[in-house]
Amino acid sequence: MLDPTACINTPQPGSTAEVGNGYEGIWDQNIYGGAIGRMLVGAAGDVVGYRRAEASSVNVDNFNGAFNFNAANSSWQVTSATINPYPTTNGVPLTGSGTFVAKSTMDGTYSVDGAAPKGFDTWVYRISNYLAVDPALLTGAWGGSQYGMSGLIEVAPDGSFTGSTRNANEIAFGACTLNGTVLPRESGASKKNYLTIRVQVVDAANAGEKSCNLVAVKEGVGYIAVNQGTTDGVCKRSMSLNFLLKDAAGNYSIGAGFPR
């Protein structure tokens, strides 16, 4: 069995990086250079993501829709998408276009609700795409404190999970119990790092605890984020099971991370 803490240097068999079409997968913006963002692109060009335009801001603009990627001329264009500029909850039209290098970088410009175009900045193909996500990897406990939340889920071999955000001082979600499934999003691609989330949420707050504010959540998408670093000459990997969940208005505005 592969060491789950060992760094990944080449795409694992069946991973998005090995069998994908070059643009599908997880793309990140520079965390330290100002803007920050993450975008999940499906095999057909469907997109779910967010971006933070200012380094000092903790607020993000969420977007989702369909992009058309043209491999022949290395270009992309928004086909139909909406964006929720913070603090709005209603989506407005998102347009944009640019270029990409398969499994490497993409950039271009975008426009919000017909405004003047501005830079979409550079997005980088993430090392998480090298990871083959199979039931053996998903199975087990994921949890701890991350992204301003504290929670734990236990995933069974069939993809079902139970869990909770039971911290009485929980900032993000309150005290919730979770039951649901985390399964491959694309049929026949069981190792690609793109997951479908179905969940039922119940308010589990006791007296003095913050009530759960996720009870309207039913579904979302997920992926395993990979971070790697070298200490004393040894490269180690850490992972977290991340969810992007739809809020009551249908926007992918709720992020949850369960580290391992």
Give a description of the structure:
- The protein has 260 residues and is mainly beta.
- The protein folds into two domains: 114 residues, Lipocalin, CATH 2.40.128; 128 residues, Lipocalin, CATH 2.40.128.
- Helix content is 3%, strand content 50%.
- It is built from two helices and 17 strands.
- The strands form two sheets. The protein has an eight-stranded antiparallel β-barrel. An eight-stranded antiparallel beta sheet has the order 10-11-12-13-14-15-16-17.
- The two termini are 17 Å apart.
Summarize the entry for a quick read.
The protein has about 260 residues and is mainly beta. It has helices spanning about 15-20, 135-140, and strands at about 25-30, 35-40, 45-50, 60-70, 75-85, 90-100, 105-110, 120, 125, 140-145, 150-155, 160-165, 175-185, 195-205, 220-230, 235-245, 255-260.
Task: For the structure shown, list the relevant keywords.
260 residues, mainly beta, Lipocalin, eight-stranded antiparallel β-sheet, globular
Q: Please give the order of strands in the largest beta sheet.
A: 1-2-3-4-5-6-7-9
Task: Report the principal-axis shape.
Answer: globular
Major sheet characteristics: 8 strands, antiparallel, barrel
- List low-confidence stretches: none
**Termini distance?**
17 Å
- Which percent range fits the helix content? under 10%
The CATH class name of the largest domain reads: Mainly Beta
Secondary-structure class:
mainly beta
Gyration radius, rounded: 18 Å
Number of DSSP strands?
17
Tally of contiguous helical segments: 2
| CATH topology name of the largest domain | Lipocalin
Instruction: Give the amount of beta strand, in percent.
Output: over 45%
